[in-house]
Amino acid sequence: MTVLFSVLLPVQPPSFSSQSRPRDLLVWQHAAYHLRAGQPAALLCVLSSHGSSPGRQGFKMSVAADDTAGSIGGGIMEHKFVDLARAKLREADPALVLRPQIHRREAPTDRSGMICSGEQVVLLFPLQAHDLPTIEAGIRALEQLSAAYLRLSATGLQINPAAADTPGFTYQEGSDWYYEERLGFRDQVTVVGGGHVALALSRVLATLDFELTVLDDRPGLNTLAQNPYAHHKRTVRYEALAREIPEGPNQFIVIMTFGYRPDEVALRQLLGHRVKYLGLLGSQAKVAQLLGTLRAAGLPEHALARIHTPIGLPIHSRTPEEIAISVAAELISVRNSE
């Protein structure tokens, strides 16, 4: 009889409540639970993906005899790999399986049974008792949001410290193949302004695999104090935002302060920041006046052109919750436009 993982496994919960869990935490907790209990488990991981693949690079799944956690994309392909993993677990077969999957009916080999036209490489990695300390180190890194990366290869499973410039994913093909992945959240969102819209946006972003920071310059602000979704909350002076917010290709900044003046201060601080996304909430009239003020102050047009404003996709949103949906949709669009 198959029992749901959430009922069967009393794993130690992560240190986040309403906050989004770091990517793959549940997968590793599931694997660790079974290894601690002396039960076999296997890891499935999508090492690379191209085109319309059901599972993207980095998708993972932990498979045990009667339950699973995570997903490598679903459908018949996932079903076949789960069956294969369970067969290897029953046979105590420790051999890795590295298998291309081509999602086209006319493919001469490696057909997945799906017809969505993409391709991917899936790894089946039977886990061993000696992998448990490494998996537990990965769980700690995910729970603490510490910089670490996962390495999978023919020689085994490793967790190593990550440098600031460690890439999100690396897959080396061939006989000396390896796969590396930075653990945790690849993308970070900083929301400047902790009001009602920021609270609504935080609730949405908690489901979208972003590490979330909310900043405000008002001590004791109730909507900041009551925000359970942000991983980091701080009261800061907007004149110091350039020092507070890191730069980088995976940094997203959303400005939604309580008024025109703090918006201007924040923009002046952050226009020169090298980030993936810089957005400003405001009506068309306010935005036009603010941009005019910045132009008159001599700020270059190319810098102003970087600002996404009015922020969000045009869905005629009115309430904080609707605005949050439109902003989150724009962040997704920018993130997935790579």
Automatic annotation (TrEMBL):
Residues 35-96 form the XdhC- CoxI domain. It holds the Pfam family XdhC_CoxI. Residues 190-331 form the XdhC Rossmann domain. Transmembrane segments: none annotated. PANTHER family: ALDEHYDE OXIDOREDUCTASE MOLYBDENUM COFACTOR ASSEMBLY PROTEIN (PTHR30388), XANTHINE DEHYDROGENASE SUBUNIT A-RELATED (PTHR30388:SF6). This is XdhC family protein. It comes from Hymenobacter fastidiosus. The lineage of its organism: Bacteria, Pseudomonadati, Bacteroidota, Cytophagia, Cytophagales.
